[in-house]
Backbone:
């Protein structure tokens, strides 16, 4: 091998043959590069190990702008920070924002029922479907493509300015219906979009100023930063400062100027919140506090469900539980549908009025998850003496939400201009609300004057429905509104709320404008007009038709109708009915179940015994509940509660009479068995030990028993005394097995004695014994069906409760008869005996 150093020493040429030089240089270069790469990796690894923060919390981090640049908080003016670019450095933003709180129906198709009913629905969620108003009318999201500007109502841009106050960003707040980011597509010359222009009447870009406003990126700190200023954030949203909302809501900076007023907003950061190197350390939390959830959910929760969300009315909040204890997500969840890392699909129940991501229904932790197992310190539910059928056919809330202290909205009439004080002077004036009792209420007046924390306490009994095969408490919202019927279509359309409001304002200013509206008046004397009489229906249809023609709303193949629950009135006397579910009051209004404000066991239905529900006139079956918004006189039309649970009152009546009248008879017969046994035992003792005594000795047991029975009866007529003397009704009702066991034990012994010596019994005794045996068999059959829950037997399983109690009463009556018959026989034998120490019959 040639050695270059030796060549140099000899003064020879240092030229090395080409191939050799190339190979050696290549090897040397490769080794150098490899060593450099290894050194770089080692240095990077060491640096990473040194700078890597402890897992589980965020390290100090820089804010970043929409273009990914690091923000210098000392710079003024500065760019607003981007939650997507800032938090997305470490967290999978796309995965997080695919959850339904961000999409709110975006990207989903309307349900089949929506398509059959609601012609304006473009999704099952807040973006394009139902929103916080529980019934029509409400502003609808315009379609992507529109042929007439008179049909354009709310666009994706104006949706954010109103509904955006309860939208955390991302999804429909960031991307159009084709998946393009609004502001970047609007700024792209290829789009042909003019910021603020009509833009071919496009439902996402019509008169939208996306380039100026920016979009609402998903703001992580809304949920994960305690003391986030939601009001400040929403002020930016209403001012169309979408891009700046996260900066202000987090308290990191201040913004001056609004897009709404034509300004270019200017951002300045609070330098005291940053570290010297410009990084940030915020006290973010993994599990959102209750206040974060309630920032969006408490106000609509009041309107839809009368939800109080306070420890005063909820046993779980009083115990210190948090929303996320029952509504977890990601790695905190146990349901595999939502338990993967960073999955923000928060566990949800199954509310009939909520249609978004229905495939995640019942991922919420149920009552059974804690109260069947004792998990998380929950007391294990005993339900002593409660037959299984109750737990199979009723949700826990049915008994543990026996009343509500805050009234929701149960009727929304959207036709007249509401002049009540403190109602916002906008489309909300068209909403006239009524409570569960059918009485008018100024919901927005309460909200604006008192606020959520000081809402009035107004106790009421929830309505019960059958949903998904079980009974549960719910708010069945009723609706009354002017709709638009389209030829050859079942689904209806809505007029725009602003057109109807303007119609009323013009009529009031000039009664010759839409004069038929003058025919609508208050018919029930509550001070609030309503549309209920045929002439009023015709008057409103005529006025709305005229208004739509004035604004050049396309009416070819369409006509205005009055929609009262499921009835679609084409005139005051002609209507068709839309299909609806049995649990619904209206196909155009929501049904919201009551799942919060849970009462403890001592205050639940049944705490006082079966008669809490099963008694004549009990609220559970016989309370009047809303059936229709208005009767012919303008007042609410009511119906008994049982009508929403069964087609006839038979089962309600049967249970009421069984528990209210039958059970006291059974308990009296139980006392009668004791007294009859006392008589027989005393007679036997007298017959054995005082057979030569005077005859009145044998009358003594009968007198004592008779007197004792009269005393017990007298006490039972005074409940305040009976409570000290007798076991409570609740305790007795829970002791099905004990009561039945006593009757079966005594009855069984008597039957066996009769079978052992049949010839010594009289015909009357045999009839009483057979009566007792029949009662035992009947009770055994009913009890078997009842305890083992043979629901496949249908009505027989419901009848089994009554058969069981009737059987016990028959058996108890037979036992009393047998015991008294035997006592009589013993007395007779004792009187006839002449010095005998024992007598015949059972006394042997």
Residues:
């Amino acid at each position: 091998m040639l050695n270059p150093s030796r060549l140099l020493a000899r003064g020879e040429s240092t030229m090395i043959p080409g191939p050799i030089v190339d190979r050696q240089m290549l090897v040397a270069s490769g080794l150098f590069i490899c060593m450099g790469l290894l050194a770089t990796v080692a240095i990077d690894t060491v640096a990473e190990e040194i700078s890597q923060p402890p897992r589980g919390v965020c390290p100090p981090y820089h804010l970043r702008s929409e273009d990914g640049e690091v923000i210098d908080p000392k710079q003024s003016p500065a760019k607003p920070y981007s939650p997507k670019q800032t938090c997305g450095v470490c967290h999978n933003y796309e995965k997080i924002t695919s959850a339904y709180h961000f999409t709110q129906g975006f990207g989903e198709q309307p349900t089949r029922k929506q398509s059959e009913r609601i012609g304006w629905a473009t999704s099952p969620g807040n973006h394009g479907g139902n929103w916080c108003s529980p019934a029509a009318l409400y502003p609808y999201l315009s379609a992507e493509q529109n042929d007439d500007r008179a049909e354009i109502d709310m666009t994706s841009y104006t949706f954010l300015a109103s509904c955006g106050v309860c939208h955390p960003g991302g999804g429909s707040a960031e991307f159009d219906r084709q998946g393009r980011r609004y502001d970047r597509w609007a700024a792209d010359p290829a789009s042909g979009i003019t910021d603020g222009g009509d833009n071919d009447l496009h439902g996402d870009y019509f008169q939208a100023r996306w380039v100026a406003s920016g979009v609402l990126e998903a703001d992580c700190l809304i949920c994960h930063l305690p003391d986030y200023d939601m009001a400040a954030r929403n002020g930016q949203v209403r001012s169309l400062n979408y891009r700046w909302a996260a900066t202000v809501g987090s308290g990191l900076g201040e913004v001056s100027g609004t897009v709404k007023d034509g300004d270019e907003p200017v951002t300045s950061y609070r330098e005291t919140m940053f570290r010297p190197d410009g990084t940030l350390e915020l006290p973010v939390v993994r599990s959102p506090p209750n206040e974060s959830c309630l920032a969006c959910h408490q106000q609509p929760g009041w309107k839809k469900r009368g939800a109080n969300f306070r420890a005063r009315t909820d046993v779980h909040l009083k115990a210190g539980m948090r929303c996320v204890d029952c509504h977890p997500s990601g790695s905190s969840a146990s349901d595999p549908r939502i338990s993967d890392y960073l999955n923000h699909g928060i566990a949800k129940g199954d509310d009939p009025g909520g249609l978004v991501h229905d495939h995640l229904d019942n991922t919420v932790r149920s009552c059974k998850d804690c109260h069947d197992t004792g998990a998380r310190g929950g007391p294990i539910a005993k339900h002593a003496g409660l037959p299984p059928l109750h737990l199979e056919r009723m949700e826990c809330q049915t008994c543990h939400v026996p009343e509500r202290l805050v009234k929701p909205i149960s009727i929304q009439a959207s036709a007249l201009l509401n002049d009540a004080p403190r109602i916002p002077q906008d489309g909300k004036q068209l909403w006239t609300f009524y409570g569960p009792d059918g009485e008018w209420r100024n919901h927005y007046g309460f909200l604006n004057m008192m606020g959520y924390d000081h809402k009035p306490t107004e106790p009421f009994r929830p309505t019960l429905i059958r949903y998904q095969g079980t009974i549960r408490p719910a708010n069945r919202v009723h609706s009354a509104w002017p709709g638009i019927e389209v030829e050859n279509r079942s689904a209806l359309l809505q007029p725009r709320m602003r057109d109807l409001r303007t119609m009323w304002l013009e009529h009031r200013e000039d009664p010759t404008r839409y004069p038929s509206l003058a025919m609508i008046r208050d018919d029930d004397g509550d001070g609030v007009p309503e549309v209920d009489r045929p002439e009023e229906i015709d008057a409103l249809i005529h006025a709305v038709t005229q208004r739509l023609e004035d604004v050049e709303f396309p009416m070819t193949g369409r006509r205005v109708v009055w929609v009262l629950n499921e009835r679609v009135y084409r005139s005051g006397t002609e209507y068709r009915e839309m299909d609806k579910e049995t649990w619904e009051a209206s196909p155009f209004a929501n049904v919201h179940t009551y799942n919060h404000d849970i009462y403890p066991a001592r205050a639940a239905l049944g705490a006082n015994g079966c008669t809490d529900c099963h008694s004549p006139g009990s609220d559970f079956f016989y309370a009047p509940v809303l059936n229709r918004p208005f009767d012919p006189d303008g007042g609410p039309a009511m119906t008994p509660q049982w009508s929403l649970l069964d087609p006839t009152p038979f089962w309600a009546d049967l249970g009421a009479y069984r528990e209210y009248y039958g059970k006291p008879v059974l308990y009296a017969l139980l006392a009668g068995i004791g007294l009859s046994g006392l008589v027989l035992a005393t007679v036997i003792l007298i017959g054995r030990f005082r057979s030569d005594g005077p005859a009145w000795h044998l009358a003594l047991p009968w007198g004592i028993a008779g007197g004792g029975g009269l005393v017990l009866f007298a006490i039972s007529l005074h409940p305040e005394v009976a409570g000290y003397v007798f076991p409570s009704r609740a305790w007795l009702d829970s002791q099905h097995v004990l009561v039945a066991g006593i009757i079966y034990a005594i009855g069984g012994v008597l039957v066996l004695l009769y079978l052992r010596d049949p010839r010594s019994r009289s015909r009357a005794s045999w009839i009483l014994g057979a009566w007792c045996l029949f009662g035992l068999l009947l009770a055994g059959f009913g009890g078997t069906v009842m305890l083992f829950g043979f629901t496949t037997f249908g009505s027989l399983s419901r009848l089994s409760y009554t058969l069981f109690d009737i059987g016990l009463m028959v058996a108890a009556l037979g036992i009393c008869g047998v015991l008294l018959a035997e006592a009589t026989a013993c007395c007779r034998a004792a009187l006839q005996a002449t010095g005998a120490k024992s007598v015949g019959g059972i006394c042997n």
Observations:
- Residues 650-689 form the longest helix (40 residues).
- Residues 1-52, 836-844 have pLDDT under 50 and may be disordered.
- The chain is about 40% helix and 10% strand.
